[in-house]
Specification:
mainly alpha; globular
Length: about 200
């Protein structure tokens, strides 16, 4: 016996499929351009990360409050283009440009970029690509931080005490929420008001 939810599920599935099929050339170009621009920022931010390191010598985990810049492209790409896969594509593009420019993390930055795009993509999917407000943006920014919060503790900071690792992870999430989430939402609104997003639904803010 069928249920009333089955037609709704079918409708949602078709809507998501239409979103994937509906990618336009302008969507792909903008994802690449946004990704490339942020990729250059990534490269510069890697230098800034090294330069600011001594400022946190008394408590190194506190530097994680600056991490959110690396989490921006997936959230921003999703908010601007508003199609399934936009967050993932934009984040991979940004990480790829950063790697080509000579990131000290090498090709692993592309793999991390994929994860930092996939996680906010799941948040947008959770809301069926229909909600793009500040709350969703903040959740997407926090989600993007889950991967580095876990991976960095294992790969780079395994020698730290657990308390330091937990503080670092929490600050990565906070930074993602503020810089990638709030920052990405405000940047999208600013671009919309300037008229730069005319080809996209995000032009309405």
């Amino acid at each position: 016996m069928g249920t009333g939810t089955e037609p709704a599920r079918v409708g949602v599935g078709r809507e998501l499929l239409d979103g994937l099929k509906g990618w336009r050339t302008v969507d792909i170009v903008v994802a690449a351009v946004v990704g490339a621009a942020v990729g250059v920022v990534f490269w510069l931010w890697g230098i800034a990360w090294e330069v600011t390191g001594p400022l946190f010598v008394l408590f190194p985990p506190a530097q994680a409050i600056l991490y959110g810049v690396w989490l921006l492209p997936g959230v921003l790409g999703g908010l601007i283009i508003r199609r399934p896969g936009a967050a993932l594509l934009t984040s991979i593009a940004a990480a790829s440009v950063s790697a080509l420019l000579g990131s000290k993390w090498g090709i692993t930055v592309v793999l991390e970029g994929a994860m930092q795009g996939m996680l906010p993509e799941l948040v947008f999917l959770l809301f069926l690509y229909r909600r793009w407000g500040m709350g969703v943006a903040v959740l997407a920014g926090m989600a993007a931080g889950i991967s580095p919060a876990l991976r960095d503790a294992i790969v780079y900071y395994a020698a730290w005490p657990l308390s330091h690792q937990l503080v670092y992870g929490a600050l990565v999430l906070v930074s993602g929420a503020l810089i990638a989430g709030v920052g990405g939402r405000l940047l999208t609104t600013s671009l919309a008001r300037s008229g730069a997003l005319a080809p996209f639904p995000s032009a309405k803010g």
